[in-house]
Amino acid sequence: MLELEDAVEAPQCCHSSQGCAPEPQFAVAENLCRVVSNQWVNDEYKHLIVNGPEVALRAQPGQFFHLACPPDQNGAALLRRPMSLYRVSPHEGTIEFLYKVQGLGTRGLAGLRAGDTLDALGPVGRGFTVPASAGHILLLARGVGLATLTPLADWARSKGVSVTAVLSARSEGLVMSADYLKEAGANVLIVTDEDGTSQVDHVEALIRSTHAARGLDYVATCGSNRLLQLLQRITADLDVPGQIALEQHMGCALGACFACVRPFRKQADTQDLTYRRVCWEGPVFDLQETVSW
Ligand SMILES: Cc1cc2nc3c(=O)[nH]c(=O)nc-3n(C[C@H](O)[C@H](O)[C@H](O)COP(=O)(O)OP(=O)(O)OC[C@H]3O[C@@H](n4cnc5c(N)ncnc54)[C@H](O)[C@@H]3O)c2cc1C
Predict the structure, then answer these.
(1) Which of 1, 114, 99, 95 is nearest to 44 (CA)?
(2) 22 near 10, Cβ under 8 Å?
(3) 241: CA distance to ligand 1 center in Å?
(4) Where FAD is bound, by residue (predicted)?
């Protein structure tokens, strides 16, 4: 078991063309967390709240935990599953996750009840780095990408930074956390497949009009290739920095197994490639350096 004193040092350089992010100060530990609640929020997603020890409560927006999901009914052990920090409350001692119930691992998670123990390795990875001068940021999330971006809204509120959040989903019923983001002071814009507003040209028009009304200083997105390509095009045009949190199958989440390596541009303005571990150099990367898939 990894203890606090065995804390793993994070890498020394972010390799970004925008310079190195501040040295990460996080320690990674295997945290035995007590489940507070684990409720359905709609037909597909559950909201898990756990009590975590101090090291886990230091998690930053964009970081994640590698969760040991309970085994299936045959007792077969599973690899851990990565889940983004959704919310953290050091005051209440709680960490929250918002997850889609899909396969064996998340079905195991879905069975957790209040009082059960969840083994959560983390917090892992490099989170978002918003420019210190930013006054207005855009969060563009589809589906569960919202889980990863929501902590940025909490951070922005604490810093007095304005947030516009564009939430995309198949249908209105699958849009999550809109109320929470509004309470956090965000200007929330919802687009859905159902009414056709999630189409790329409409989302692009929405972002451009948002920027025209009040300049964006930073954008963040998560997961979707379509949204990545859209934001790469818009931010290159408007000269706005941005980042993406990537989702990638991974093994150890500690930079050792290299299962989550992906190609990246060495710098935003070059086609020369380099290879980075999503778990360790990421999961948050510069928008323009990320190679679409
Ligand atoms: C850094 C990071 C943060 C994440 N945060 C969240 C989150 O906050 N909420 C959430 O619901 N999901 C999140 N994911 C995705 C989540 O890890 C996968 O959905 C989960 O591992 C699926 O496990 P499973 O056993 O239920 O499904 P499996 O049976 O393993 O797979 C079911 C489906 O999920 C896909 N999948 C499996 N693992 C991953 C993965 N690591 N990344 C992307 N797709 C995967 C498979 O291709 C398959 O389509 C995150 C992934 C990463 C890498």
Answers:
(1) 99
(2) no
(3) 27
(4) 81-84, 105-106
Binding pocket residue ranges, ligand 1, CB within 6 Å: 64, 81-84, 97-100, 102-106, 144, 147-148, 247-250, 283
Which amino acid, 36? V
Strands 29-40 and 45-51: antiparallel
Question: What is the rounded CA–CA span in Å between residue 47 and residue 112?
Answer: 11
- CATH architecture label of 4-124: Beta Barrel (2.40)
Confidence at residue 54, expressed as pLDDT on a 0 to 100 scale: 92
Segment 284-291 shows an average pLDDT of 97
**CA-nearest residue, atom 30 of ligand 1:** 103
Class of domain 136-286: alpha beta
Segment 99-146, tens digit of pLDDT: 999 999 999 999 999 999 999 999 999 999 999 999 999 999 998 888
In the structure, what pLDDT confidence band is assigned to residue 26 with cuts at 50, 70 and 90?
low
Asked if the domains 4-124 and 136-286 are classified in one and the same CATH topology, the answer is no
CA 291 centroid distance within chain: 18
From the CA of 223, give the closest atom in ligand 1. Answer: 43
Ligand 1 centroid vs 133 CA: distance in angstroms? 34
Residue nearest to ligand 1 atom 4, measured at CA: 83
Rounded to the nearest angstrom, the distance between the alpha carbon of 268 and the centre of ligand 1 is 27
Comparing CA positions, the residue from 140, 165, 153, 124 lying closest to residue 248 is: 124
- Decide if 256 contacts 238 (C-beta within 8 A): no
Domain ranges of the chain: 4-124, 136-286
- 33 vs 43: CA distance, rounded Å: 26
> Which tokens go with 255?
């930079």
Indicate which atom in ligand 1 lies nearest the CA of residue 105.
25
Two structure tokens written together for 216: 């964006």
- Which tokens hold the place of 155? 């951070």
CA-closest residue to ligand 1 atom 25: 105
